[in-house]
Amino acid sequence: MIKVALVGVGNCASSLVQGVAYYTLNPDASGLIIKDVCGYSASDLEFVAAFDVDQDKVGKPLNEALFAGKNNTTKLVDSMAAGSCRVSAAPVLDGIGAVYKDVVNVVDGTADAVNEILSSTRPDVLVNYLPVGSDEASQFWAEMCLAHNIGFVNAIPSFIVSNPDWAQRFSEAGVPCAGDDVKSQIGATIIHRALARLFEQRGGEVDSTYQLNFGGNMDFRNMLESERLHSKKKSKASSVQHEIPAVADSQVHISPTDYIQFLGDQKVAYINLSGTAFGGTPLEIECKIKVSDSPNSAGVVMDVVRFVAAAKKRGLGGPVDITPFYFKSPPQNIADDEAEKIALETASNSAF
Questions:
Q1: 89 strand-pairing partners
Q2: What's the confidence (pLDDT) of residue 233?
Q3: In terms of Cα–Cα distance, which of 252, 287, 284, 243 is closest to 269?
Q4: What is the structure's pLDDT at 252?
Q5: Which end of the chain is more exposed for a tag (fewer CB within 10 A), N or C?
Q6: Chain centre distance of CA 35
Q7: What element of type H or E holds 292?
Q8: Which helix (H) or strand (E) holds 266?
């Protein structure tokens, strides 16, 4: 089993925990990127600790807290055994922005309590699901992972795994890590990258491109606060620009655009690429994507947790090689087909 700690018990955490229950009941069902990762199946994840700052969640059993507060993601299973852990209070730090605070009653935890819980539960892997813009809080949890020898999965766009100084610290400590900012399973970023690469591969030339995103979950509400958006915009834009390096920064616009409450956990994205093709003739591609936002993230994290656990079991430290396939801002961005090959080979490699 892989003992997992969750930081942030929102929609993404709910989808991940529900996903473990779903694939335990339906091991042959479609939807997983890789079914067997270094000998681990989806059912091997066990949730032993969880942290949040929402009064509606703190103190509740995890399987109740996942549907409490403002959580509004898709229900994947009727019932689940999410372990016996209760949600504990986390230090707030910069984990809650002004817009978020308007609708959440905050409970502030302490570092001493966190240390005690991590010492007693001894997770193998910790997943950082904090809201966008939680840079100080993300660094706090990275420090906790180094102190307690816990593999670190950074699902959000706070640049830790992609930061050379942090990466070196994880390498020297012999603690594996993966991040930053989840590249959703079949989401706007991966589709945008594929279209941009196709444009170039087939002889076209991209002159400009944009991506606009809308959603109705707390992630999008949090991003109404523009001061918390810098890292998110940078992460999404740099991931797409990797495929079209000749296009000027000023001609690439990628942004969460608005919070539309009635969309719930649905995300809508519009992608446009404009340029030229044979003989200088104009060419434009435009598409719309609508997905269940949090399950789209959970499918990636389910793989990554297993890779990081396998790396920890084998005594490997630092960024895990599979990171470019699963994240928008890895230490090194490479083409998706090459990244997929590395992930598949690593998943089947017993020596990893």
A1: 52
A2: 82
A3: 287
A4: 94
A5: N
A6: 19
A7: strand 282-292
A8: strand 266-276
d(CA 331, CA 352): 19
pTM score of the predicted model: 0.95
Measured at the CA of 120, the angle between CA 118 and CA 125, to 5 degrees, comes to 40
Q: Which two tokens stand for residue 348?
A: 């089947």
Distance between start and end Cα atoms, the chain? 17
Q: Write the CA distances from 108 to 48, 271, 342, integer angstroms.
A: 21, 40, 41
- How far apart CA 163 and CA 289 sit, in angstroms, is 31
- 214 beta partners: 258, 268
- Rounded to the nearest 10 degrees, how much is the dihedral formed by the CA atoms of 237, 240, 245, 247? -70
Looking at residue 107, its pLDDT comes to: 96
Largest Cα–Cα separation, the chain: 67
Please list the rounded mean pLDDT of every run of 10 residues in the chain (352 residues).
97 97 95 96 96 97 95 91 85 91 93 98 98 96 98 97 98 98 95 94 95 94 83 86 90 90 96 96 96 96 98 97 96 94 90 62
